């Protein structure tokens, strides 16, 4: 199997940006720009309070809606958290887990990421699992070790069959929101190493079928070069997903 047989997925991560009315306006602007494109899946992961507006505005379009996190427990005394069942009922199809900002600012660990990932799967959501090394880890030469550990722990208890609903996003922390992009070769090398980890866990066929995205200052200018690489099957896009023209260029580059 080769890259062409994997599903290309371009996903936006809005982080803490956009209100519900801004969400409606954005989706109405974006939808016609990408209406004819079907060579890749297009997902926008939005803040919880924007989900209803996003789902409503993207009915009958080729845009699917995701959330930016999910709690590991089904319900209970977890103030401020959101369950997979809640997301599902709101029309969410995807959820991001393990984003580096969650790990960095909100104390998430490989173990909590594993719990959240399993909660997403248990509720029928497709899960975008983020892994990536810090600048210090890259400089210390432990990039592969880091992403390998993050991937293995986050996928604990996940079967080969479940992998149909998992996307891995390789996001070097030093490239997120910094304007510094990994070179296409650097990004491809780590995405290839992650595919190797998947092969060791689940076998070659599952590894070859899994979508692996690159994320980290992907933009309208560098997307085509990154997306042309053998192991890069899509992108997780922060800043550039807030501008419909830039996001459209990236979606086009993935066709
Ligand atoms: C992200 O938030 O996952 C991301 C990659 O952000 P940016 O594109 O802004 O670097």
What do you see in this structure?
By secondary structure, the chain is of the alpha/beta class. It contains eleven helices and eight strands. It has helices at 20-33, 51-57, 84-89, 100-105, 110-122, 135-139, 143-154, 184-202, 204-209, 223-227, 244-253, and strands spanning 9-13, 41-46, 63-67, 94-97, 126-131, 166-170, 212-215, 234-237. The chain has an eight-stranded parallel β-barrel, surrounded by five helices. The longest helix is centred in the C-terminal third of the chain and has 19 residues, at 184-202. It is globular. The protein starts with 8 loop residues before the first strand and ends with a helix. The mean pLDDT is 96. The structure holds phosphoenolpyruvate. Phosphoenolpyruvate (PEP) binds at residues 13, 15, 171, 176-177, 215-218, 236-240.
């Amino acid at each position: 199997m080769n890259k062409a047989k994997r599903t290309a997925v371009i996903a936006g991560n809005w982080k803490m940006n956009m209100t519900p009315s801004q969400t409606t306006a954005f989706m109405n602007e974006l939808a016609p720009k990408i209406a004819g494109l079907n060579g890749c899946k297009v997902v926008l992961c939005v803040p919880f309070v924007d989900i209803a507006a996003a789902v409503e505005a993207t009915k009958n379009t080729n845009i699917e809606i995701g959330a930016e996190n999910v709690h590991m427990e089904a319900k209970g005394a977890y103030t401020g958290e959101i369950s997979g069942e809640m997301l599902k009922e709101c029309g969410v199809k995807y959820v991001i887990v393990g984003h580096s900002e969650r790990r960095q600012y909100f104390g998430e660990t490989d173990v909590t990421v594993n719990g959240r990932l399993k909660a997403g799967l248990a509720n029928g959501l497709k899960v975008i699992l983020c892994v990536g090394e810090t600048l210090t880890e890259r400089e210390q030469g432990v990039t592969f070790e880091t992403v390998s550990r993050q991937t293995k722990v986050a996928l604990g208890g996940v079967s080969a069959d479940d992998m149909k609903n998992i996307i891995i996003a390789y996001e070097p922390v030093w490239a997120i929101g910094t304007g510094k992009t990994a070179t296409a070769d650097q990004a491809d090398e780590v995405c290839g190493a992650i595919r190797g980890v998947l092969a060791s866990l689940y076998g070659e066929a599952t590894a070859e079928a899994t979508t692996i995205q690159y994320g980290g200052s992907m933009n309208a200018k560098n997307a085509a070069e990154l997306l042309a690489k053998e192991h890069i099957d899509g992108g997780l896009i922060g800043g550039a997903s807030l501008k419909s023209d830039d996001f459209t260029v990236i979606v086009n580059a993935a066709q």
